[in-house]
């Protein structure tokens, strides 16, 4: 059987002044040759690896706390702690530390934490101890001054703490407090406030154990009610005894656990509510109080987690249909507090905690809570908090559960659908709970935190499940509110809810692929969403525009054909015209959408917009976006009217006729280095090809183009005047390829003749010519 006396947990203090659990193991002490001294060794109980190897330095300050803790500072800003399972093991290691440092094991701290100045050290060493004045009403002022003067010096703080501890001074002070309160001696009560506050700042575990005992803690809180800076005392004891009631929803058979829960709640109350906000100097002097609360919470969670009967009874009553509403309300609140306590645990302990709850059936219990407590605001809030703890801990665990239950239950009672209904039915005017739940749903459908293994892909399985069983529940409010040209309900709360739904749908468009695409096209979701551009609430109209903008940003021809086939730019143009000349977010968002289409040269959408909505937009002149769209459209039509030039350009793009970029640069540089006389004498750069066409046939397309250009510009145009090196390239292409095709449109894209991924050309994606209602 393993010796539990030496079983310990190793903790380190992080930058946030929180203790991090480094593992559980068994501690021993012995001489380590490498460190040249007696050292503490902790080996992990799981695999025997070395968790801690720390030399016991003669000058290191070790502190013993709560009979089972040893705390010390290994280096600057690196605190360590050993938490023993049994007091006997802690005493053995403490004796070994004191033996190495030559200290009496009865002390609770072996060294001074901070070095004193030579004068202070000489003065303090010359006096063997600190003598406290008698605990009398007439000497309270002297005692308060003594405490205040001792706090700046670590050595004097240590002596004061020893004097208070050895003389049983705290209990005497509390007796004096009761006398002062009976006599309504306000001056004495103010002195006692300063004294007790100073004792807290002594940062001494032994003193805390006395002050936080059942018989003393309420009097300690009473002393702290009489702050001299306040005109009236604060009724902390009244709150703790009358308002705050301990409800034992499941009987706790262990009296030690019950006492620990009471003590932790009261000490936490003292830290958060009773003690004044500490200064930077005082914050460091309360580290022992923080540690006291932290280790108490760890111990409480561990004791409850190990009590299988307690957890079994808890979940049995939660899921029992016979449990009345008041009882279930108390059980849910307890479970919420239990999960909140677990947040103080370190990652490995938190994993074990949630695995235990999962094995006990917390997710099925959560379903019962949501179904039975749908009308209770507090139960819904507690259920939301519990669900958030589970999703934040392990979203894959939640996904696996809901996919498994879908094989047995109807869609209406699936956990994720209950969460969505809970979000939709939020009665809070600001939809605080709905916002929180929407964030959790977003986490669940986020592919970034989904697992992929050799046997299965969580992303594929869960998204297929979600779009089949849950998406219709999520989009139901949207579809119900957009049956006409305007939203059927346009109040603020409904608009907020629809904005949340649109936010999640927009996230799906960005991160999901064919699932959301199929859903949008088959259910005609975009057309329904654009109804919301007529909302009186600008934020909702902007959400609808953002949704469409994300779809256009994908540059997916399936989406583009869907938009053109249903003339879905029409509500956008209407919203733009109805906005008038106002310069606001609506105006900017719509113009940016059209500018994106023009800048990215999305040809199918460009043609659709110009052919159907140009008359409505041609008068907009304060931006060049719409004129730029028209220019794009005309250039595209011009290329369609001249297929010979277009085909020659396509051949030029073929790699067989392309010149190496470095060769072109070298030739251009050679041209600039060539004298004009030499250039005039040269008749050809490259010898003519035998396969050249007659010159007249070759130049005919170019001549026609020149005539058209002259007719448009009324100016002379010589292609060889564009750039001297351009003529070189022109002759080179003429000879090598037997083709003339140098004339280009600057706005063209190399993708103009490529087919869509489904085999259809972009021209085939255009709908029949149809005049828009707006353009007419």
TrEMBL record:
Region (Disordered): 743-776
Name the record gives this protein: Serine/threonine-protein phosphatase 4 regulatory subunit 3
Family the UniProt entry places it in: Belongs to the SMEK family.
Gene Ontology CC terms: nucleoplasm; protein phosphatase 4 complex
Domain PP4R3 EVH1-like, residue spans: 5-101
Residue ranges occupied by any Serine/threonine-protein phosphatase 4 regulatory subunit 3-like central domain in the UniProt entry: 143-635
GO biological process: DNA damage response
